[in-house]
Amino acid sequence: HPHLLGIEGLTPGEITLILDRAQHYAEKNRTADKTSNILAGATVVNLFYENSTRTLTSFELAAKRLGAMVINMTVGTSSVKKGETLIDTAMTLNAMNPDALVVRHGDSGAVKLLSEKVNCAVLNAGDGRHEHPTQALLDALTIRRHKGRLHRLNVAICGDVAHSRVARSNILLLNTMGSRVRLVAPPTLIPSKIERMGVEIFHDMEEGLKDCDIVMMLRLQLERMEGSFIPSVREYFHFHGLDRAKLANAKPDALIMHPGPMNRGVEIDSEVADDVERSVIREQVEMGVAVRMATLELLVQNHRQSGGQA
Ligand code: CP
Predict the structure, then answer these.
(1) Which intervals hold domain Aspartate/ornithine carbamoyltransferase Asp/Orn-binding (predicted)?
(2) Which of 77, 85, 177, 213 could be joined to 150 by an S-S link, Cβ 3.0–4.6 Å?
(3) Is this complex scored with an ipTM above 0.90?
(4) Which letter does DSSP use for residue 277 in this model?
C-alpha cells in the first residue's frame, strides 16, 4: 500500500506486521535511546484542518525520533484562510517534495481525494466520520499488550458512535483480527446501517457491558451535532456515562479505554478514567507514538523504494 487511508483493506498479517514493529518502538521509547536515523533525509508534513493534541504531537515526535524533518502546517495561519482549496494546498506542499503528508480533515473522504493528487505517502490522521487508522492501531497495540491477543475478545464501544471515525476504524480492525464488537449507545447515536459492519447493538449500558473484556468509551462530539438532537449532559451521563456501577457488569479484568480528548463527567466518570489498575488511557497515548513511528517508517521506506512516486 502506498498510503495509510484506513484500516479497510488491511489484512490480519499487515496489521500484525505494523503492531510488531510498533511494539519494537514502544520498548525503545522507554529507554534512553529513543532515536534512530532510519528516516534521515526524509521530510514529513503534518497538515491538520481540525484541532488535535495527541495525533499531531505524536506524529511530530514519531518523525523526529526516526530522524526525519517535520513541518507542521497550522491551517489557522496558512493561506487556507485566504481561500486556498484543499487540493491546491496539497499540490503546493507536494511541489516541495515531501516524503509523507499526514492529513486530518473534517470531511469523510478528503484524505483519499488528496492522496490521488500527490506523489508522496499519505497517512490519514482522521477524516470526518470515516476513519482514524492510527488510532485503531494504537488501541490494538494497547489491547494486545494487556490481553496477549486480538482474537476472541468481547469489545464494547460505547457512546457517540454516530460521529466517530475512531469507532469505525476499531470495528474494522477488531473484526479483521477475530474479535466481537458491540456498540452500546442510545438509538440517536447509532448510525443507520452500521449492523452491516458485523456488530451487535445495545442501548442499555448494563446489558451491553456484560462480560466484556474491553470497554472503549467515546467522546460525545457536541461540535458535530446540530438541530434537534443535542442531549442533556446530565441525563447522558446518568444513562450512558461509564461509572463504577455500570463497569461492574464487565469482566473484573476488563480494560477501560478512551481515545481522548475526554469529557469527564459526560461520557466517563473521573474515578473510572483514573483507575490505576484498569484504565489504559495514558498507555494508549504512549502507544500512539510507537504506532506512528512504525507506520511512518513502513510508508516512507515503501515510497523511497518505489522511486519517490506514490
Ligand atoms: N484521539 C485523538 O485523535 O486525539 P486528538 O484529536 O487530540 O489528536
Answers:
(1) 153-298
(2) 177
(3) yes
(4) T
